[in-house]
Design brief:
mainly beta, six-stranded antiparallel β-sheet, single chain, five-stranded mixed β-sheet, Neuraminidase, binds calcium ion, Immunoglobulin-like, 2 domains, globular
Length: 583
């Protein structure tokens, strides 16, 4: 066993201990555990949904599950016998890859070849599927029908997915990727260590010892959401910025229960990145998984990141721990590093804090607002700043009403809102209300009795959008969870991917979607089904090595990183290309 493996073992052990200590906080009563053992693990829903029609024949099937036995996940060895997809017409069992997510809350089945068009399939889970405690799943079956008119076409780009051994984490997950001036790949994790990898000549990654600097300076695990290298970094003096917040997780693996004001932006430098400096402290932190997200440096030299919302749709709600929006939440923030003086800068705005982002010399300011959950920011070579946003889940929130009564509050707002791509412009509002900033109207409001752009039909007709509201550049649909964004660079594939935005779709999709832009920066076409871009387990962030065109994908649920290598001269044959109307 090599030295690297020993270091990894040590890391896994330390982390395991940390997590055990942490989860002790959430220990359940024996009675609750007993009640839970009595229940069987079972499927709670699926995508596509039961009875769905016009399903794309290139679909994967995801089943959400409940695992009542504490500590027990899906036993992967039982997936083959316990989960299947069958063509109704002839009972043919469809060859497929079967997987479970790392947090164990889903089963994913991905057919190896596209399904037939206009055919019924049934997806079944039987009692051969077990959790790791040996308990059988309750049987489940659902049927769906594939689309009749489904146009697949060629797309000049294709990739091969290369499995890499020795990268899968235990009790931890990758959240963010960056490439350093030293040619190493850096990966932030939800427990605070930043892993490093050497890129070998064939593109596969070889682990180096991880950086423990963030953990060491914060007395334990931290949820690292973003890592980015300062543009002033050199090979000799790399400077790594990291956004992170309190790591709070339930025994089921849900990121919940964090304390407010625990977000930080920190700078790591020096030999082995051992020098640690908190630059911003007391950033807002939502009860759930919204915090200070990924970092991007703009062409203007400023540092940008999105600060996630504290609520589902603007007003306090139960699922989000009744925590109100803050002056800096649900916004794209801009840090002018030249204006920083004494470090760290305390940016607490309420609860005893006095930071004012609109003060004349404020280093950290509101660049754009109304951005609910923008995990990644992409400054594109076309000069535009893009952000993928997760919409609100259904049945969970409240929207605020305005004190003057002009905007009606919506209590128990039921709708799921769309996931979107935003083109972020200074001073615009993108639709997530925040009463502390006197922003009350969700998305496009409901100005007329007809269909309005991004309307919220629950509002009374006549509810105008906020005056600086900007609609999204693209509506992905619901429950896709667009997260990591990159601009692909390079002339391979005849330039077909050069300048396209690549976005991971974490939930539905489990893939990388290609967004083709026109010269004005509008999305004019979406391309799904590129070879190598499908079948991930909760893909979160991605990265291109510009030298090779290789893409690295952080799979949060898969707890690993996948390598996608370009294949020249062999186009993808099952791409789904959809033209998008420009607004
Ligand atoms: Ca309307
Ligand atoms: Ca990223």
């Amino acid at each position: 066993m090599g030295r690297t493996s020993l270091v990894w073992l040590l890391v896994v052990f330390i982390l395991g201990s940390l997590l055990l200590t942490l989860s002790g906080k959430f220990a359940r009563t024996e009675l609750a555990q007993h009640v839970e053992r009595a229940a069987r693990p079972h499927v709670t829903g699926s995508r596509p949904a039961a009875g769905a029609k016009d399903v794309a024949p290139v679909t994967g099937i995801a089943a959400d599950i409940t695992l009542p036995n504490t500590g027990a996940g899906v036993d992967p060895k039982t997936l083959d016998a316990g989960v299947s997809l069958i063509r109704t017409r002839d009972g043919a069992v469809i060859p497929a890859g079967k997987n479970t997510s790392g947090s164990g809350d889903a089963i994913v089945l991905k057919p190896i070849d596209p399904l037939d068009k206009d055919a019924e399939y049934h997806f079944t889970v039987n009692s051969n599927l077990k959790d790791t405690s040996g308990a059988s799943f309750a049987p489940f079956e659902m049927k769906f029908t594939t689309a009749k008119d489904f146009a697949e076409s060629e797309f000049p780009a294709a990739f091969e997915k290369v499995a890499m051994s020795g990268l899968t984490l235990d009790q931890n997950a990758f959240t963010s990727l960056a490439i350093g001036p030293d040619g190493l790949i850096y990966a932030g994790t939800f427990a605070g260590m930043i892993y490093r990898f050497e890129i070998t000549p064939d593109g596969t990654l070889a682990p180096r010892e991880p950086l423990m600097t963030v953990l060491q300076h914060n007395g334990g695990p931290r949820l690292v959401t973003g890592v980015a290298f300062d543009p002033a970094s050199t090979r000799e003096n790399p400077i790594l910025w990291s956004n992170h917040g309190q790591m709070a997780v339930t025994p089921e693996g849900k990121l919940e229960g964090a304390d407010d004001w625990t977000g930080k932006l920190s700078r790591l430098s020096g030999p082995g990145f051992s020098q640690y400096q908190d630059v911003l402290i007391n950033l807002p932190r939502a009860y759930k998984d919204h915090l200070n997200f990924q970092i991007a440096f703009g062409a203007d030299g400023a540092l940008y990141f999105t600060q996630g919302s504290h609520t589902s749709v603007g007003e306090i709600d139960k699922k989000w721990g009744y925590r109100p929006e803050r002056k800096l939440s649900a916004a794209v923030l801009r840090l002018d590093v030249q204006k920083l003086k004494q470090l760290p800068l305390d940016v607490k705005t309420d609860d005893g804090g006095t930071y004012d982002p609109s003060a004349p010399d404020a280093p950290l300011t509101l660049f754009a607002t109304g951005v609910r959950s923008g995990f990644d920011l992409l400054p594109h070579r076309n000069g535009k700043l893009y952000c993928g946003v997760n919409g609100a889940g259904g049945n969970e929130g409240n929207t605020p009403g305005s004190p003057d009564g002009k905007v009606t509050a919506l209590r128990d707002f039921k709708s799921t809102t769309s996931d979107t791509l935003l083109r972020i412009e200074a001073g615009r509002y993108y639709g997530h209300p925040n009463p502390t900033r006197h922003q009350y109207v969700l998305n496009g409001g409901n100005p007329t009795a007809g269909a309005d752009p991004m309307e919220v039909s629950e509002y009374p007709v006549g509810t105008l959008p906020e005056s600086n509201y900007a609609p999204p550049a693209l509506d992905f649909g619901k429950n896709y969870s667009p997260n990591g964004l990159i601009e692909y660079k390079g002339a391979r594939f005849g330039g077909a991917l050069d300048g396209c935005i690549l976005v991971t779709r974490y939930s539905d999709g489990k893939d990388i979607l290609v967004l083709h832009l026109n010269s004005a920066g509008d999305v004019v076409e979406t391309i799904a089904g590129v070879d190598g871009f499908t079948g991930f387990v909760d893909p979160l962030d991605l990265l291109e090595d510009d030298k090779t065109g290789n893409i690295y994908v952080a799979e949060y649920g898969g707890r690993t990183i996948s390598l996608l290598r370009p294949i020249e001269g062999k186009p993808s044959r099952h791409a789904q290309r959809i033209k998008v109307g420009v607004r």
